[in-house]
Amino acid sequence: MTIKLNDTELQELATQLRHPSGKGGVTIADNMNENNIKMTESSILELNLKQNEQVLELGHGNCGHLDFLLQQATSIRYVGLEISELMQQEAIKLNKKHSNSDVRFELFNGKTIPFYEKRFDKIFTVNTIYFWEDVNAFLREIYRVLKSKGKFTLTFSTKEFMETLPFTRFGFKLYSEKEIVDLLKLANFKIETIRQLNEDTVSKTGESVYRKSIIITSYKE
Q1: Torsion sign across C-alpha atoms 51, 54, 59, 60
Q2: pLDDT digits (tens, 9 = 90+) for 72-113
Q3: How far apart are CA 149 and CA 169, in angstroms?
Q4: Where is the Methyltransferase type domain (predicted)?
């Protein structure tokens, strides 16, 4: 059912999508996990995970996809970073069976990645780039903590699609495929693959939509 929201409600929705909090944030997290699962699983598959690799996810939400990720190879070590304390708590609660030293959920400021350089074999993020304050600086941070020959997969919905959603005018920075590719190259990433993912889904306001997304996998020489 489509929900008609006024500007104040749309702005609140946009705020929750950026930084989920409170009771409404839990609902938003469940909704995001359900609606974004195909994007997330497709991004994980693009990483081509191998045994013993260290994986970093930026903006894991409630991390309802962790089982899928860990099934890709044995002895994967996973770290998830979030700006939302609520999402960190939800991810820990939802993934209690993985509460060991190989799975960690941590908070960060969304600007600097709190790890030493060349730490991770694979890094990925889904639907977070709209909220990065300084895209160039953050891509340099990702490059810094990625190992040589490591892969970085960045997944986002197209600018053309996102512009059709009423809440994205509140705090979302939208990008075209070319803009993202140019930003990655500026940060010294080499482009490996660019794939399109089109799917029927439901928007955050309850509308049936045909979402067009891009999955860009790059690497560090």
Answers
A1: positive
A2: 999 999 999 999 999 999 999 999 998 777 999 999 999 999
A3: 37
A4: 56-153
Which backbone phi and psi does 132 adopt, to 5 degrees?
-70, 130
Quote the strand ranges of 13-162, DSSP E.
54-58, 77-82, 103-107, 120-126, 146-157
Residue 109 in 3-state DSSP? coil
- Tokens coding 81: 């970073």
Residues 6+ apart with CB under 8 A from 118: 144, 145, 146, 147, 148, 150
> What are the strands, taking DSSP E only, across the chain?
54-58, 77-82, 103-107, 120-126, 146-157, 190-202, 208-219
Separation between Cα atoms, residue 182 and residue 187, nearest integer Å: 9
pLDDT tens string 151-186: 999 999 999 999 998 889 988 999 999 999 999 999
Query: Domains (ranges, CATH) in the chain?
Result: 7-219 (3.40.50.150)
Selection from 55, 143, 153, 148 nearest residue 103 by Cα: 55
What is the distance between the alpha carbons of residues 85 and 20, in angstroms, rounded to a whole number? 8
Q: Which residues pair with residue 82 across a beta bridge?
A: 107
Question: SS3 for 95?
Answer: coil
Nearest to 215 by CA among 173, 158, 154, 143: 154
